[in-house]
Structures are given as C-alpha cells and as structure tokens.
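Dear Dr. H.,

I hope your travels went smoothly. While you were away I took the liberty of generating a structure for the chain from your last submission, since the lab meeting agenda had it listed for discussion. I wanted you to have the full record in hand beforehand rather than looking at slides cold. The sequence, exactly as received, is reproduced here:
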Amino acid sequence: PRYRAIPSPDGSRIAYVGPADSGPQLWVKERDRYRASPLPGTAGATVFTFSPDGQWIAFVVGRQLRKLPVAGGSAVTLADTVSSVAGGTGVAWLDAGTIVFTQLGGHALRRVPDRGGISSVVLADSAYVRFPTGLPHGRGVLFTRCTTVCTIEVVDLRSGKTHQLLTDATFAQYVATGHVVYVRADGGMFAVPFDLGSLTLSGPSVPVMDSVSVIDGSYPLMAVSSSGT
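The corresponding predicted structure, in token form, is as follows:
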C-alpha cells in the first residue's frame, strides 16, 4: 500500500484508502468494530486528513480539495489547485480553522479557510515541499523539503519565516507531549523536544521504534493522533 492509515484525533477510528468498484476511495473503521465501512462521495481520494474535532475529513480528488462529514453527507469543494501525487503529499487541518495543502506542482504550500474561501500562499520554494502537519493554535506548520536529501522544516505562520529543524528525515509531526516525532528513510522513528514559542528543537532525539515502512525512501506509512495513537 502507498497510503497511510490516519487515526482520528481521539483515536476512536481510522481512515484509509481502500478498494471500491469505481477505484480507490476512503474507508473508515471504528475502534470497536471489526469491519470498516466505505465513505460515500470519496471515490478517487488519495490525500486526506481528519478535522481537529474528528467530525470531518478533508480529502483530495484530482486537483480539488474537498471536505465531508464522517457521519455522511455532501462534499464541499474548498480549493482546486491541489497536488494529488499518487500516495499523497499531505493535507493539514489546523485547529485555527484553516487547511494547508501542497499546491499543484509540489513547490508551494497554500492555506484556505476550512469554511471555504480564497486560498493564499504560505510558502513557495524551488524544492519539492510535502507532508505539511500543523502545530497547535495555528502557530506554524512542519513540512518536508526534498532536493537530493529530505529535511524537516517549519514555517512560522505569524512571521512567514522558515527554518530547518532536521536533516535526513522524511516526515514529522508534533505530539501533545511537547515533542516532534519524525521518521528517517531507514524506517527509524524518533522523538525530539520542541519549543512552541521559538519553533526550535530543545533537546536531543531519542529512538521510539524502528521498521516503519517507508515507500521509495521518502513516504513513511505512519501517523499519530493527538491522543497518542
């Protein structure tokens, strides 16, 4: 599989891309149920994430970013210039009411209000940028920047400034313990203390686990919920 299974913020369900008669679509599995259920209206979805309250899923079909209630309903289109590279380059739903996504072409991050509206550029780069993940209170966004090697960087959404945090890493996400967890190309997963005030690392990395599947050396199949799952 080239797609991550993503847990809801409270860890009560997971969503993933699975097969359907018309091609891939999103499936949702509740923690207390053995079988998953298809999510109607998500045919062709590749990139996806939960809303901070776990009640919605934002997903990409073609070049469009859409959102849909997990309980079912009609999808709403939010943007139409989104990268939909096979396997996904990431969508981050921030708790400040915006969604950050990789722009078509892979050289910029944009954000759009989660209620809909005009999107704006968060950052533009000559390198490929992917896997945006949000920091609490809309403070900033972690993302992966890839040239000959991949690095983890952070963009401050207040100042617009960007700086590098880690080298030789493919994906990073902030967790509620005050750490950033990240995965290397060799499948090692590490945690490092992170200061939300200065958006800088504040201690040494420690290993968390190994053998995380990393497709093509750059696409790790892991995700962490805000509850720690």
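Two observations you may find useful: The longest strand covers residues 128-134. The radius of gyration is 16 Å.

With kind regards,
E. W.
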